[in-house]
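Researcher: Here's my situation. A collaborator sent me these components and asked whether they could plausibly form a single complex. I don't have experimental data yet, so a predicted model of the whole assembly would be a useful starting point for our discussion.
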Amino acid sequence: MTIAQHSYPRIVGHRGAAALAPENTLASIRAAAANGVTWIEVDSKLAGDDIPVLFHDETLDRTTNTTGRVANRSAAELAHFDAGSWFGPAGNPAFAGEPVPTLAQALTEVRKLGLGLDLEIKPDKDRTVETATHSLEVLSEAGFTSADPLLVTSFQPEALRIFHTYAPEFARGLLIWKWPDGWLETARALGCVAVISDQQSLVTESDVRQITDAGFLAMTYTVNDRDRAEQLLGWGVTSVVTDDPTVMLGL
Ligand code: G3P
Ligand code: CA
């Protein structure tokens, strides 16, 4: 099966719209859509019962009302934690009680809102294959096909290898930070359509060209300054991933 070719947007909402609502929640996905974003990025991580949920960190400490490892809680338990109160003014949190959603719930929301999805596979250490495999199962159960606007991304080549092997029709993007050794060969071997670099590593236009001249789309994270986004797009970057789409309106 050939890899899906979609037209990718100039702006992708990071973790939904992480500056506008608590990251990786359904509220954050809705906030992105409400502010003109057509694609969002979220992080898929395994709960303790191997159900993929939207979560960035390995622990609950930073973005919920409890502590400990995500991997020590079931998805049902995670749904009862408050992943919203930490965000916004103390004493009057606008997103109090916002739960940790499952990936399945997020896919339903993405579909409902007509969004494109940059799905980052975000495994805990030593859980790469399992996280990719279960995320793929959820995508399949939700009926995602090559016709859907979907880009599967990861810093972990092994996660992308699972998709390359078992669902080659889904477009893949290799996430990199500071030009790791062998990034180009890895992106090629995994049949990626995009290489998604940290924006700090794109110092000049030739840095972008390293990616585009090799035949990949260049995407970059996390850009919250409008002038910097304009510069990167002018250099040939296809998409910038931003916490705050309100800053990027009209780009
Ligand atoms: O889209 C790329 C970006 O999400 C990667 O960094 O740490 O926010 O997952 P991080
Ligand atoms: Ca991410």
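Model: Some features of this prediction you could bring to your collaborator: Residues 41, 43, 120 surround calcium ion (ligand 2) (CB under 6 Å). The domain at 11-57+101-248 is CATH 3.20.20.190 (TIM Barrel).
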